[in-house]
Write a structure and sequence with these properties.
The structure holds two protein chains of two kinds. In chain A, 62% of the residues lie in helices and 0% in strands. Chain A is mainly alpha-helical. Chain B has one domain. The chains are: A mainly alpha, B mainly alpha.
Chain lengths: 241, 75
């Protein structure tokens, strides 16, 4: 994949960072957590009973992580029974455990081991939760709701400018995007379809879809800049799916 | 369609961060390191350029980041 627009700083992954000054009790707790994390990693790298015990401990941590993720999404999963939620958490923990054991040799210590392990189960649980929440919902791939973006009745000067930019954006969506970019952009950026759900429906990956979204945004920005719009005030800090 | 700040938020959401950013795969690769740096009080954005912009532009990775930071902070 060729989306990388800047180096992610791979050299940084092997650095040791000086820790900022913290209270002694917080530092002690931090040290204890780091010790438990390292002991778990050491156990996983052994064989026999020590390894088995470490695997069981890791699975317990992963189950906790899965429940944490599903708990954050409880409103979207309100129709699921307690048993169904438990199944979802167990599946996520099981699959994360397999992924972690397969990738254990790639862990380089750039983070605490437990932080590294948790990200696998949060991904597994998050993807399952998004797909479950959308399993009975239609994803319209030929949706043309983007045509209705522009506000027809702006009031203040700022609103007039924003409405003009929205109209220009609508025009750019129509002319500057490929059909695939338009479908992906409309589903993800306009209609809020979770990227994992769209990836499943289209038989592709989150990364491939984000690449299409990224390219679409870049094409729109270029078209708007060519039309004389200054986009420097238009950045944002993320959002929920 | 609403106006004012809603319109500007919507435009920003549509157009994304407009800065160099890592891919979803690279974001996942670096996410644990990014979170540990954040929670240790370091400048994670300076250490791992491109992460902040990606987290701003990708809602799914943004959620993964929020969730991991919250979980690690609690444990």
């Amino acid at each position: 994949m060729s989306v990388l627009l800047t180096s992610p700083g791979r050299g940084a992954s092997r650095r040791t960072y000086a820790r900022p000054r913290v209270s002694s009790s917080a530092a002690d707790a931090d040290l204890a957590r780091a010790g438990r994390s390292q002991a778990l990693l050491d156990g996983l790298r052994q064989v026999g009973p020590a390894h088995d015990a470490a695997v069981a401990e890791l699975h317990g941590l992963l189950l906790r992580g899965a429940h944490h993720e599903l708990g954050r999404r409880r409103s979207a999963l309100a129709e699921l029974s307690r048993d169904e939620l438990e199944d979802l958490a167990t599946q996520a923990a099981d699959d994360a455990l397999v992924a972690i054991l397969a990738k254990l040799d790639t862990f380089r210590g750039a983070s605490r081991f437990t932080t590294w392990a948790y990200k696998f189960v949060l991904l597994e649980a998050g993807v399952r939760a998004r797909r479950r929440a959308w399993q009975d919902r239609e994803v319209a791939l030929d949706d043309t709701s983007w045509r209705r973006l522009a506000d027809p009745a702006p009031g203040t000067q700022q609103e007039v400018e924003d409405a003009a930019l929205l109209r220009a954006t609508v025009a750019a969506i129509a002319t500057a995007l490929t059909p695939h970019q338009r479908r992906v952009f409309t589903a993800l950026a306009l209609n809020g379809v979770p990227i994992d759900v769209l990836a499943q429906r289209l038989g592709t990956t989150r990364g491939a879809l984000y690449k299409a979204l990224h390219d679409a945004r870049r094409a729109l920005r270029r078209a708007l800049a060519d039309a004389g719009y200054d986009l420097h005030d238009h950045g944002h800090d993320g959002g929920a799916t | 369609m609403s106006s004012g700040h809603d319109a500007r938020d919507r435009i920003a959401r549509l157009l994304g961060p407009g800065e160099p950013e890592v891919t979803c795969e690279q974001c996942f690769e670096l996410l644990d390191q990014y979170v540990d740096l954040e929670l240790a009080g370091h400048d994670a954005d300076a250490r791992l350029p491109g992460m902040r912009a990606h987290l701003a532009g990708c809602p799914a990775c943004h959620e993964d980041h929020e969730s991991l930071r919250d979980l690690v902070r609690r444990t």
